[in-house]
Known about the structure:
The protein is of the alpha/beta class. It is about 40% helix and about 15% strand. Strand 5 (about 160-165), helix 7 (about 170-180) and strand 6 (about 185-190) form a beta-alpha-beta unit. Helix 6 runs parallel beside helix 7 (about 170-180). The mean pLDDT is about 95.
Amino acid sequence: MTATILDGKEFAARVRAKVADHVTLLKEKHSVTPGLAVVLVGEDPASQVYVRSKGKLTVEVGMASFEHKLDADTSEADLLALIARLNADPEVHGILVQLPLPSHLDSDLVINSIDPSKDVDGFHISNVGLLGTGQKSMVPCTPLGCLMLLRDHHGNLSGLNAVVVGRSNIVGKPMAQLLLGDSCTVTIAHSRSKDLPAICQGADILVAAVGRAAMVRGDWIKPGATVIDVGINRIERDGKTKLVGDVHFDSAAQVAGAITPVPGGVGPMTIACLLANTVTATCRAHGLAEPEGLTV
Ligand SMILES: NC(=O)C1=CN([C@@H]2O[C@H](COP(=O)(O)OP(=O)(O)OC[C@H]3O[C@@H](n4cnc5c(N)ncnc54)[C@H](OP(=O)(O)O)[C@@H]3O)[C@@H](O)[C@H]2O)C=CC1
Ligand SMILES: Nc1nc(=O)c2c([nH]1)NC[C@@H]1CN(c3ccc(C(=O)N[C@@H](CCC(=O)O)C(=O)O)cc3)C=[N+]21
């Protein structure tokens, strides 16, 4: 069997087009320009690439982009003061603090200082609680992007066995919540799980969010399963840097029914969902109707 490729790049472009349409409507009918503030502390090269790409796409959909680049040794008090200013700024509807933060900063404290209604990452404790109890919240971008791809491919996920490998707060746990919300039977695996290949073999939907290049092999996959590869790993091959996922693509694509590539799968969906969340946050802030299909 050769798997269908779930083209995240193409799907993300469609999501951004929908976002751009709604931005036009907000500007023309309501004189509101959605604004996204991105805060980057330090000079991690991968983070700089993401922040640049987020800024470019934010402007492309017609929103205002505010970038705040702070020195790696910025104090917690200074960072919290910036977040307080952004919380109070009516032109800012979404705030993203790029993770990971330098180790002298308490990321839980920093994230929880963001106004939850502007927390377009969905990492604030109150959004986590709202999602966990099935209430309206801001939904983390990467899991939201994965869910959009899955719903588009399957229609209905009810009753399917889903395995999420990885239990981080930013991907694994919220992904499991969303799949549970769509009535999958959900298993969360992690570094202490016994016999990971056997757990994965039971999955109709397998989400890999681990951070280990090509860990999930074709023989871990149930024939016909849908495989979502969240991993972004930079490896050296033939003297060049290459981006690979957590799934061994070539062997997995022989067995799976559908699979996301890396690059061009989940990554572009993450950024599209960040823009979608910013529009959603803007609509909620102004008491306006939210666009259809841009959140769960
Ligand atoms: N495409 C995108 O938009 C995004 C991609 N990513 C990528 O996704 C990957 C995961 O990110 P993130 O969740 O932040 O990573 P974390 O490092 O926070 O979490 C990794 C998880 O994988 C588990 N794990 C590690 N090794 C193994 C193993 N050998 N077997 C089973 N489980 C294991 C860990 O288990 P334990 O808890 O027991 O330690 C942990 O729960 C990374 O490659 C990251 O770059 C992340 C965000 C967005
Ligand atoms: N507060 C916060 N929110 C995040 O959402 C967040 C974060 N911090 N820290 C880092 C991770 C990682 N992440 C990615 C986003 C886009 C791509 C992406 O667009 N990837 C492209 C390739 C990009 C490249 O070539 O490097 C692709 O997969 O096709 C990848 C990874 C968001 N994250």
